[in-house]
Amino acid sequence: MRLDLHIHTFYSRDAVNTIDDIIKFARLRGIDGIAITDHNRIDAALKYSKTIDEILVIPGIEVDTRYGHIILLNVHKEPPKTDNLDILKEFAEDENGIMVLAHPYASLFTKRKNVETIIHKVHAVEVANASDFKVDTNFRKLLDLAKRYNIGITAGSDSHIPDTIGYAYIEVESKEVDEIIRDIINRRCKIYYKSVSINLRMKKIFYDILHRARLYRPSPP
């Protein structure tokens, strides 16, 4: 199973992907499953995880915290609005999900000095994010960090436009979500990635501007 575990739909304020876009490009790239991880909202993830049969859809959410972006995978309701990572971790565990530190070395919102102070609080770290300018360098650093702290690893394209879906993914033997979660935690997965090109980065910015101005596709209620 090839799984891109960080994809945004147009329910995120800075993304334009429809579910049809996602399915089309996932199939094109040989992706068997995805995690929908919209910013601070889970409604699209829950909707599509229940209605889509073509590919596996794992519901998730990317939440803003003062420590950086945190992804909750395999959760089925809104998480508590808090910066307390212990509370978020307990919530994820109660949902049979996991808490992932997203793109810690690529985000403007995550200070590098914070990473090693909070890494022990998460179940896994996103070691490859295709939108990261320094994905090669950071992949090696984050993989070493995951091994040092004995936590899981994930990867995702962080796609906001369809073109980049499948640019980063994990490969596992398991096909059931609960087993995939265990594979992630135990680092029983292979990581594949390539960096997003400058042209696609510019395309993402262009659509982001149009979307925020409501000139491309209106945000859902």
Q: How would you describe the overall organization of this protein?
A:
It is a single chain. The chain has 221 residues and is of the alpha/beta class. The protein has a single domain (2-212), classed as TIM Barrel (Alpha-Beta Barrel), CATH 3.20.20.140. The chain has helices at residues 19-28, 43-51, 85-94, 112-118, 135-149, 177-185, 198-212, and strands at 2-7, 33-36, 56-65, 68-73, 98-101, 124-129, 152-156, 168-171, 190-193. A 9-stranded mixed sheet has the order 7-6-5-4-3-2-1-8-9. Strand 5, helix 4 (112-118) and strand 6 form a beta-alpha-beta unit. The termini are far apart.
Number of domains: 1
Mean pLDDT over the full residue set: 91
User: What distance separates the N and C termini?
Assistant: 33 Å
- Trace the largest sheet across and list its strands: 7-6-5-4-3-2-1-8-9
- Anisotropy-based shape: globular
Order of helices and strands: EHEHEEHEHEHEEHEH
Query: How much is the radius of gyration in Å?
Result: 16 Å
Classify the beta-strand content into a percent band: 15-25%
Tell me how many strands there are: 9
Q: Let me know the CATH homologous superfamily.
A: Metal-dependent hydrolases
Helix content range = 25-40%
CATH class: Alpha Beta
pLDDT below 50 for ≥5 consecutive residues: which ranges? none
Instruction: Note the main sheet.
Output: 9 strands, mixed
Q: Do you know the CATH architecture?
A: Alpha-Beta Barrel
The name CATH uses for the topology is TIM Barrel
Give a quick set of tags describing it.
alpha/beta, 221 residues, TIM Barrel, 34% helix, single chain, globular
